[in-house]
Amino acid sequence: MFSSTIFLSLLFPLTITAQSCGTRCALYTLAWSDQFDGNAVDTSMWNYRTGPRLASYQRKENVEQIDGELIITQKKESYQGLNYTAGGLISVPNFHYGYFEAYVKLNKGGGWHNAFWLMCGNGSKTVYTNTHTEIDIFEIETSKPKEMINAMNFWLGNGNRASGYSAVHRPRKNSTEWNLHSALWTEERVVFFENGKLVWDYTFGPQAWTHNYINIWLTTVANAAFGTEDSALPSSMRVGNVSYYQKDYYLTSSTLCFFDNPSSANCPSNAGYSETGSGWTTSSLSGYTKKLSTRYVTGSSNAAATWSLSSLKVSGTYDVSAFIVVYSNSDPKAKYQLLKNGQVVQEDIEIDQTKGVNRWAVIASNVTMNTGENWAVRVKASGVGSIRADTVKFIRTA
Ligand SMILES: *[C@@H]1O[C@H](CO)[C@@H](O)[C@H](O)[C@H]1NC(C)=O
Ligand SMILES: *[C@@H]1O[C@H](CO)[C@@H](O)[C@H](O)[C@H]1NC(C)=O
Ligand SMILES: *[C@@H]1O[C@H](CO)[C@@H](O)[C@H](O)[C@H]1NC(C)=O
Ligand SMILES: *[C@@H]1O[C@H](CO)[C@@H](O)[C@H](O)[C@H]1NC(C)=O
Ligand SMILES: *[C@@H]1O[C@H](CO)[C@@H](O)[C@H](O)[C@H]1NC(C)=O
């Protein structure tokens, strides 16, 4: 299904829009999806979750695709000092704001902690060294099949949690039946849905905690705290499909990597961002979201930074804004341009980066953009003060 979607979209402006969250998801179109067709996990889309967690050891041998479903098998099996094995998948691509959805049926029998959740990760471990955010679209202890938890967890990067918030829903449809779980993550909030019904609306602005790139996790682990029901094993967590729908594009100058090894190919990208002129440096001033670094260069009149959407995915009307990082020694006459396929379509909007508060500044409104076009924002230094670069957003309005 996914590969045919990609194929068709090259020939026709075909778009699949999100359905299960009503008008809130208007204009969100399918950007990444797995229907789990075929007889093997597509490892260009997924890494395996491996290693110990709670009472089970996670193995790739426990993860299969059968009859169009992802099957993660829970076993009573001694492995690496633990008495159970299970597994999980973690998406290879990382994502930002959008609508995330999965169709899931859980095992009968207690003692398993199952989840569809969002956090940076590539399967190597559960703890990463940078500050990051975890969004749990559902966590279900199978001992309580009619109880579902939605949660937000804010991590410090040293293995410790700064804070966490959750909502518990009960009673609900039994998790041993098929349920559609989803969440819409925007710059202002995360809204959770179950079977198309809004269940939790959590306000989550970019200064509340880091809005970093995240990966999709589909996982099951044995939880000894709830007493694993051995008589029900082997059993499985089944997933019919999982999807990511996107509306807006955020491009950032941040070089902060959420993995331990910043040279890892799996690091969240600052793809689309480039600098010209020498002397660009990472600043200690943060920008639109907490903990993400920004960039600056001082006294260089030929310096510029460009945020470029190499090939727009979906035609529409967009508003374009740049985040202004204000500081007393910044550039008082920074000039912002909008470019289409390399040509300037809107000249020099002058913005004083020394005045006011950190904010989004509108660069262009109601711009008609078409699939395949390259759209970019460029900021040029005046040569006075330090020009600062952070994030640019393309917000689809129609
Ligand atoms: C595994 O099961 C054995 C036998 O019941 C028990 O002695 C051991 O403590 C269990 N291991 C763990 C890690 O729970
Ligand atoms: C959930 O459904 C399973 C059958 O799939 C059943 O055994 C179990 O009792 C149900 N649980 C509740 C709390 O209704
Ligand atoms: C996933 O499956 C559910 C249930 O059939 C369906 O509502 C949803 O549209 C499917 N998503 C995709 C992208 O196929
Ligand atoms: C995950 O990233 C780490 C670096 O932090 C790397 O050592 C490891 O090989 C990566 N694993 C996968 C499956 O890509
Ligand atoms: C953009 O379009 C909307 C709806 O047509 C209109 O209300 C608004 O004034 C326009 N904004 C600009 C800056 O042209």
Automatic annotation (TrEMBL):
Protein keywords: Signal
Origin superkingdom: Eukaryota
Query: GH16 domain location, by residue?
Result: 30-250
The molecular function terms in GO held by this entry are: hydrolase activity, hydrolyzing O-glycosyl compounds
Q: Which InterPro entries match?
A: Beta-glucanase-like, CBD-like_Golvesin-Xly, ConA-like_dom_sf, Glycosyl_Hydrlase_16
Kindly indicate where the leader peptide sits in this chain. 1-18
| Nuclease listed as a keyword | no
Q: Which CDD domains match?
A: GH16_laminarinase_like
Record-level GO BP terms = carbohydrate metabolic process
What PANTHER family does this protein's entry cite? Answer: GLYCOSIDE HYDROLASE FAMILY 16 PROTEIN, GLYCOSYL HYDROLASE-RELATED
Q: What family name appears in the similarity comment?
A: Belongs to the glycosyl hydrolase 16 family.
What's the protein here called?
GH16 domain-containing protein
The organism's taxonomic lineage, starting at the top: Eukaryota, Fungi, Dikarya, Ascomycota, Pezizomycotina
